[in-house]
Design a protein that fits this description.
This protein has 222 residues and is an alpha+beta fold. Helix 7 packs antiparallel against helix 9. Helix 9 links the parallel strand 2 and strand 3. It has a four-stranded mixed beta sheet with strand order 1-2-3-4. The chain is built from nine helices and four strands.
Length: 222
């Protein structure tokens, strides 16, 4: 019998918990920002928010949340192609939980397409995941405790004092609004590492028939 699986089910699943914990631990060893439960929860919430506030059906919103919660588990294996690896891992988990194959297809295609190097919005769930994932820029993601050893990703995330994804259904706009402490890093450093991600967000928003906007320190830049 097929089951209605939600993010709440995944949060109670021991296998998922182990994989997310290991992803955070291993990436921290390599000096990457946090990719564990904190990031998973934020991306799951924002992916749901994107589709919900655009008026999509509830189950699509729930599937976007599921994809958001599982999207980075492939980092446990390797950072390279973690989207593709994570999609295969997510398939095994969701099949074990008896999610219908039609829903599994949506979730794993979204996970497999969330990396900026090779991904694109192939469906609404994937578009919502891309926007949710790329919008999580915040200082609590920095795992390096030695400011003297910060590299550019550490500086940009640590400088981000607030990050919000705003959806306007009537105006069909999706806005990433950031506050960046320019004493820690200049705004140009944000674009240096995130320009490709912002282009990906623009295309994801266009898939949802919206316009993507970027506001940093109350200045509209896109």
């Amino acid at each position: 019998m097929m089951a209605v699986i939600t993010t709440a089910n995944l949060k109670e699943d021991h296998e998922v918990d182990v994989y997310l914990s290991c992803s955070t631990k291993y990436l921290s060893e390599l000096g990457f920002t946090e990719h564990g439960q904190r990031h998973a929860n934020i991306v799951a919430h924002r992916a749901y928010q994107v589709l919900s506030e655009l008026g999509c059906e509830e189950r699509s919103c729930q599937l976007a949340s599921v994809a958001g919660y599982l999207h980075d588990i492939g980092n446990m294996v390797n950072r390279f192609n973690h989207g593709g690896t994570g999609a295969v891992m997510a398939y095994a988990i969701l099949a074990r939980l008896n999610m219908p194959p039609e829903e599994i297809a949506l979730v794993i295609s979204a996970i497999g397409n969330h990396e900026e190097e090779r991904g694109q919005a192939v469906n609404a769930v994937a578009a919502a995941l891309i926007l949710a994932d790329k919008s999580d820029v915040f200082r609590s993601r920095v795992t390096n405790t030695d400011f003297a050893k910060f590299e550019i990703h550490d500086r940009v995330n640590y400088a981000a004092e607030s990050s919000a994804l705003l959806i306007d259904k009537e105006q069909r706009t999706i806005t990433l609004q950031l506050t960046i402490n320019t004493e820690i890093c200049p705004v140009m450093e944000y674009f240096e590492i995130f320009l490709v991600r912002m282009v990906m967000c623009r295309r994801a928003a266009e898939f949802l028939k919206c316009r993507f906007s970027l506001i940093i320190n109350d200045n509209q830049l896109l």
